Amino acid sequence: MRAALAAAQAAAEQGEVPVGAAIVRQGTVIATAANAPRALHDPTAHAEMLAIRAAAALLGRDRLEDCDLWVTLEPCAMCAGAIAHARIARLYYGASDPKGGAVEHGPRLFGQPTCHHRPEVYPGIGEAEAGAVLRAFFRARR
Amino acid sequence: MRAALAAAQAAAEQGEVPVGAAIVRQGTVIATAANAPRALHDPTAHAEMLAIRAAAALLGRDRLEDCDLWVTLEPCAMCAGAIAHARIARLYYGASDPKGGAVEHGPRLFGQPTCHHRPEVYPGIGEAEAGAVLRAFFRARR
């Protein structure tokens, strides 16, 4: 989660909503990414998506059954869908997102019968720090 | 929808589940894409995602409020989430997908209170042809 938090801080410095993600395989961080839809001109460029895509490219396959995803914020529906498609083994996330989250809020995607893979989910990891980065960002923009 | 169907056929010829998508702006097709997660080693590389990313890159922005998305199959949760993030104006799709769709099935994403943009939705466009391409593909692989 340290790598994900560092990526979140980097996103904030670029004026992006500060969310960071990391993919861990066999105890090693193999990809990290910061949320960057504005900089990349890509509405799909959430931190989780970029980290999953980077890890899949690195490993040369489209499934990451042996990988875990760490992210500072509860994933949205798009990212939760990608996590399922990628067959991520374990999902660790920091702050809850009642407004846009899709794991414990809204569609609760991994509980849907149309969701074909459900990772183990560990919420609240590094929550205080992840939430503080987000709150500082939104406070500064008000 | 002709462009999307042609992309679906191209996906089938590459051994990918045959789904195709096109982005239309001001009456012009500005991006088309075929489903390609295996070829690209990218679990997020559904036709809709690739078409949205290509259109956003072309226009140099992360929102596509003035664009419509045409796709041969009902979008999944990941793609429906991306459609909302991209602020797509109108969604036209072909075949329904009771197993993985997230528009009229499963989470019915655009009806969730955590979904911040809801496109106009037109299902069943070119449904017969889109469904035939999918059925032929799965029949050949059995």
Number of domains of chain A: 1
Mean pLDDT of chain A equals 96
> Which chain pair shows the most residues in contact?
A-B, 44 and 44 residues
The secondary-structure class of chain A comes to: alpha/beta
What is the name of the CATH topology of chain A? Cytidine Deaminase, domain 2
The CATH class label of chain A is Alpha Beta
Query: Oligomerization state of this entry?
Result: homodimer
Number of H/I helices of chain A:
5
Radius of gyration of chain A: 14 Å
Query: What distance separates the N and C termini of chain A?
Result: 28 Å
Poorly predicted sequence stretches spanning 5 or more consecutive residues of chain A: none
Largest sheet of chain A: 5 strands, mixed
The shape of chain A is globular
CATH superfamily of chain A: Cytidine Deaminase, domain 2
